[in-house]
Design brief:
This protein is 32% helix and 16% strand. It is α/β, with parallel strands linked by helices. Helix 6 runs antiparallel to helix 11. The longest helix has 20 residues. The two termini are 17 Å apart. The structure holds nicotinamide-adenine-dinucleotide. The site of nicotinamide-adenine-dinucleotide has 30 residues, from helix 6 and helix 7.
């Protein structure tokens, strides 16, 4: 890596040597999310209040928070300025906060040296990444933040997975033809439903907790044996299957062909007795593992429901169709996309707090933007800077290789 990690000064916005907002406030801009189905917003009035109190100018594109139920007047009351156009929003903006990755068209509107912070989904968004490199934009990708204790308050992957796990359990319950809790009524006794969670990471644990609160009997499985303790602490039963695939950084590793076959056999018995199956199994940077074959679906009870949270990365069920709900053998299979956007109020709140913590790393004690991104968290999440792509897998893909 030849270029040092030095933030660029933007002519006319932050003069070199500026002592920060006391001299010239840093303009932080929040665009309205334009991706279809996206309801979230990258900041909320409470966070705006804190940023403006620190001397920054926060600009919100009009109606940016409306679909998350944060109307413009709440932002104004918190000290933000509402920009009626994208051009007005970005004019002089030094930092841009977003939820979805910027498109090529978005990047073309940013001034050279702008710092953009949000999810970047870089390996699937190569065109925009290349444009950010060419236009000398600085981009921080929240999904690249290391999962270390100090970064927990900035971990947007976790906060949004929490929202996704919650919605998955609610969706499963709402498509299930049964009650979830046990009921003793004058019309007879109702047995509780059984919910099976495959993959007990952040989303899976939240799905377990939610299904438990709804009164179901909950079982869960993960290839990382360490997940067992967390599952049991939520009052669910952990399925012990003789595989332990704890990989690097606490993530799961890919199973061998033999292990995969064993897993599918063992999982299918639990799937067949469940009323709702929520699958969240993922391996970073790879296609989601196949846990439920079409033969297993055929063994399920009529009326059973599968909610496949891995739909966007290929699906944990062979019959899942991303973005669609299908019915096969009397089983309803949901392949939802962007579940956090279905609870936009709270997922925006959590995301905004993650960004607030992350932003704190970018300013010095005088409120001026720091010039060196040497902090471990900043260095790891720095995707593009000063005309270079710093994330090797993305750079390799852009150079025509494999990541
Ligand atoms: P993820 O979204 O990458 O995957 C979800 C789950 O799928 C994981 O628990 C994984 O073990 C599981 N999985 C993968 N292949 C599987 C298979 N074949 N069968 C069954 N399950 C399979 O994971 P995540 O939710 O992002 O969490 C990953 C890890 O990071 C976990 O250990 C979690 O506790 C840890 N984490 C740590 C922090 C921190 O701040 N220290 C924060 C968040 C998560």
């Amino acid at each position: 890596m030849s270029t040092p990690l030095i933030a660029q000064e933007v002519k006319g916005i932050i003069p070199a040597g500026s002592k920060g907002p006391a001299a010239i406030p840093v303009v932080i801009a929040v665009p309205r999310e334009l991706a279809p189905g996206e309801q979230r917003v990258a900041t909320i009035p409470e966070v705006v209040g804190k940023l403006t109190k620190s001397g920054h100018e926060v600009r919100i594109e009009h109606d940016a928070g409306t679909s998350a139920y944060y109307p413009d007047d709440l932002f104004t009351a918190a000290g933000a300025k509402i920009a009626s156009s994208r051009t007005g929003l970005l004019n002089g903006a030094r930092v841009v906060l977003c939820v979805q990755p910027p498109t090529v068209a978005d990047v073309d509107q940013f001034a050279e040296g702008t710092i953009v912070i949000g999810f970047m989904n870089a390996t699937n968004n190569l065109g925009a990444v290349a444009r950010m490199r060419d236009r000398k934009i600085t981009a921080f990708a929240l999904e690249l933040i290391p999962r270390i204790t100090r970064a927990q308050s900035m971990d947007a992957l976790s906060s949004q997975a929490t929202a996704g796990g919650y919605v998955a359990a609610i969706l499963g319950a709402s498509h299930c033809p049964k009650f979830l809790p046990m009921l003793t009524t004058a019309a007879g006794t109702i047995r509780p439903a059984t919910v099976l969670i495959l993959g007990a990471g952040v989303a899976g644990l939240m799905a377990i907790a939610t299904a438990k609160r709804l009164g179901a009997i909950v079982e869960a499985y993960d290839v990382r044996r360490a997940a067992g303790e967390q599952v049991r602490s939520l009052g669910a039963r952990f399925l012990e299957l003789e595989i332990n695939a704890e990989g690097q950084g606490g993530y799961a590793r890919e199973l061998t062909a033999g292990e995969k076959e064993k897993e599918q056999q063992m999982v299918s018995a639990a799937v067949a007795r469940a009323d709702i199956v929520i699958t969240t199994a993922n391996i970073p940077g790879r296609k989601a593992p196949l846990l439920i074959t079409k033969e297993t679906v055929a063994m399920m009870r009529p009326g059973a429901v599968i909610v496949d949270l891995a739909a966007e990365s290929g699906g944990n069920c062979e019959l899942t169709q991303a973005g669609r709900t299908v019915r096969e053998h009397g089983v309803t299979i949901l392949g939802p996309q962007n579940l956090p956007a279905r609870v936009p109020f709270h997922s925006s709140q959590m995301y905004a707090k993650n960004l607030q913590s992350f932003l704190a790393l970018l300013f010095d004690k005088d409120g001026a933007l720091i010039r060196e991104f040497t902090d471990e968290i900043l260095a790891a999440s720095l995707l593009v800077h000063a005309g270079e792509i710093l994330h090797k897998p993305t750079r390799d893909l852009l150079n025509g290789g494999t990541p």
